[in-house]
């Protein structure tokens, strides 16, 4: 998809630098610029860009005030704050106010490309989750399935769709584990025992599935890794999001979610880690209660 961007900074030279970086790296189309907070707010309301690079300190109305005002009015734009501010309390306030990421001045081209690319990834992930959710809702309207079975599968499918992993190969493995948890979870000492149960299940019921336990493990790991990334993206978009809070407390360790959020924001080179057993146990709890 083609992204529409706007640059808001009272320094014309900074606007030129940012515009050059965006154009030279094919990051999208610049649809507007502004050097004043009040003017920027009006333009953003009309143009509705996908991404706005917003200076913290602006004449007329500061960047954070502009963002808060637009968010309250329901403007669906993603904001990147640009500033020389180093105070952590002010930066934290900016994140709470609705910014996605932070770019420090003086402008660094590598950092700018990295941050804009990460915001674009967040936007794509959100659109993917929305499309999957709509698809599952349409599937739920199909009448020809056994009603009891349909209700059980639909609940699991909704759960996987909300995590953004319904289309992942490993989501089928996770679904089978949830559906058969009472059988699979008996007499297992470790995850390898669980993978052996899955191998046996596929040999008996699904000849098309690879029964190699290493392949099964990698499918599940990749799906959960993507779920971690998607949940962290939810938190970046809205820290008080109900799904984010529920998934964070049940499926992942909060410390690892925070690491993944910092990684996606470009604040840390270290991404979060998954705990497969915790994720599977939490998935069973959420889908079977």
Describe the structure.
The structure is a single chain. The protein has 289 residues and is an alpha/beta fold. It folds into 2 domains: 4-117, 3-Layer(aba) Sandwich (Rossmann fold), CATH 3.40.50.2300; 142-288, no CATH class. Helices cover 63% and strands 10% of the residues. It is built from 13 helices and 5 strands. A 5-stranded parallel beta sheet has the order 2-1-3-4-5, with helices on both faces. Helix 1 (12-24) links the parallel strand 1 and strand 2 (29-34). The longest helix is centred in the middle third of the chain and has 32 residues, at 109-140. It starts with a strand and ends with a helix.
Specify Rg, calculated over alpha carbons.
22 Å
**Broad structural category:** alpha/beta
Could you say which overall geometry the principal axes of the C-alpha atoms support?
Answer: elongated
| Percent of residues in helices | 55-70%
Strand tally is: 5
Uncertain segments = 139-153
Strand count, sense and barrel status of the largest sheet are:
5 strands, parallel
The tally of structural domains comes to 2
Strand content: 5-15%
Largest sheet strand order: 2-1-3-4-5
Instruction: Note the total helix count.
Output: 13
Can you lay out the helices and strands and say which pair or pack?
Layout: E1 4-8, H1 12-24, E2 29-34, H2 37-47, E3 51-55, H3 63-72, E4 78-83, H4 88-97, E5 99-104, H5 109-140, H6 147-162, H7 169-179, H8 181-184, H9 191-205, H10 213-237, H11 242-251, H12 254-265, H13 276-288
Parallel strand pairs: 1-2, 1-3, 3-4, 4-5
Helix pairs in contact: 2-3, 5-6, 6-7, 7-10, 7-13, 9-10, 10-11, 10-12
